[in-house]
Design a protein that fits this description.
The complex is a heterodimer.
Chain A lengths: L1 H25 L8 H18 L5 H12 L1 H9 L4 H4 L3 H17 L1 H16 L1
Helix pairs in contact in A: 1-2, 1-3
Chain B lengths: L1 H9 L1 H23 L6 H12 L16 H5 L2 H10 L9 H29 L5 H10 L5 H9 L3 H25 L8 H11 L2 H11 L4 H31 L1
The chains are: A mainly alpha, B mainly alpha.
Chain lengths: 125, 248
């Protein structure tokens, strides 16, 4: 049943958020430290485990896939509720940073793929 | 008119589903027929979303009672829930396929974007650690930015800047990839894996690679699906703590 998938997702989500909050508490920062990341990691590992056990059937997975497909629509809804008027002064920052981050990362491609390729050749020998 | 207001007012979330559906339908159409898939529909939809926010004030369009449901649909709870669900498409067993170069590119991709965000943010006068971390996270992708910002309690306008940064990155990646592909030797699966890990914006990587060489798309997607998760894990935790200790 689809609800099993949604429940699994909810369990991972809450556990991840809890871990994030706990970590924040330990570090004395009053915020969620990496909760979503932990939750994603939990979902990845638990789904692999459950798949191996053959407990994760397609119908269950569909419950998770639905929410996975909803993330773009939800992001669109979120952007329409942001305080953009106050952010307008930062528009220049967004454009400069967006372009810089893209270009710098692109020019790192030949560098890093070189390292990897040498390793590949080594392993072939 | 009053009856319509009443129906929508009491079913705000459902009305938000309809609104977002129409926005995405329209942006997909624009992407396909006006920009000839040169700009992904997702990026157009987000730009429409950001422009709609101008109709309201500090809470964007949800300041208008008719559209109050948008705040429910786009609120942090449902957003984080849906973002976590996307981890299903990132198959951990496939990370081995990406190899060491894939892993290095992912970690470097997130770190370099984040550091650039901090440096440029600092130079533009942002000094608050939460804001800087959010801007740095926005330089990763338009998801990592708001997830980090909400977790750390950054203000809505800084979150808006981080989303806009991510969208600029997506559009820039889509447009620049086919133009720059030869120069950066992006012509084989191995380079595509590295490319996906460094850029990370899945919609930008997929659209950019499709315009360069269709066969490279799955390789770029392989690493970029891990990027947002890694960003959501590192930015509000390790990176934030490191930045806080440097700035303090």
């Amino acid at each position: 049943m689809k609800i099993y998938g949604v429940a699994l997702l909810a369990a991972c989500f809450l556990l991840g958020k809890l871990l994030g909050r706990l970590l924040g508490h330990i570090l004395d920062i009053n915020s969620d430290i990496g909760g979503v990341g932990f939750a994603m990691f939990l979902l990845m590992t638990s789904s692999i485990y459950l798949r191996k056990k053959k407990w994760l059937v397609l119908e269950t997975e569909k419950g998770i896939w639905f929410w996975s497909a909803m993330y773009i629509p939800i992001i669109v809804a979120m952007t329409s509720t942001l305080n953009v008027k106050a952010a307008l002064s930062g528009g220049v920052l967004a454009v400069i940073l967006g372009i810089c981050a893209t270009v710098v990362c692109m020019f790192m491609v030949p560098l890093i793929s070189k390292i990897g390729r040498e390793k590949n050749i080594d392993s072939q020998k | 008119m009053e009856i319509i207001d009443n129906v929508i007012g009491k079913n705000g979330l459902v009305f938000a589903f309809l609104c977002v559906g129409i926005i995405i339908l329209f942006s997909t159409w624009v992407s396909k027929y006006v920009t000839h898939k040169k700009i992904p529909g997702v990026a157009i939809a987000i730009i429409i979303g950001l422009s709609l926010a101008f109709l309201g004030n500090e809470k964007g369009i949800s300041n208008i009672p008719l559209f109050a449901g948008m705040a429910l649909l786009g609120g942090p709870m449902l957003r984080d829930f849906a973002v976590v669900a996307t981890a299903m498409s990132a198959d951990l067993s496939k990370i081995k396929q990406a190899g060491l170069a894939g892993l290095v590119s992912l970690i470097l991709g997130v770190s370099v974007s984040f550091i650039l965000g901090i440096l440029i943010g600092l130079s533009m006068g942002y000094t608050n650690t939460e804001s800087l971390t959010t801007i740095g996270a926005g330089a990763c992708t338009y998801i990592v930015g708001p997830v980090t910002g909400t977790a750390l309690g950054a203000s809505s306008d800084v979150i808006a800047i981080s989303v806009a940064t991510g969208v600029v990155k997506t559009i820039c990646t889509t447009i620049c990839t086919p133009l720059i592909a030869k120069k950066i030797q992006l012509d084989n699966p191995h380079a595509a894996i590295v490319f996906g890990g460094l850029l990370g914006t899945t919609s930008g990587v997929v659209a950019g690679l499709a315009a360069t060489d269709e066969e490279l798309v799955p390789y770029g997607a392989l690493t970029s699906t891990f990027y947002t998760g890694l960003g959501c894990l590192l930015c509000p935790s390790l990176f934030f703590v490191i930045l806080r200790s440097i700035l303090m």
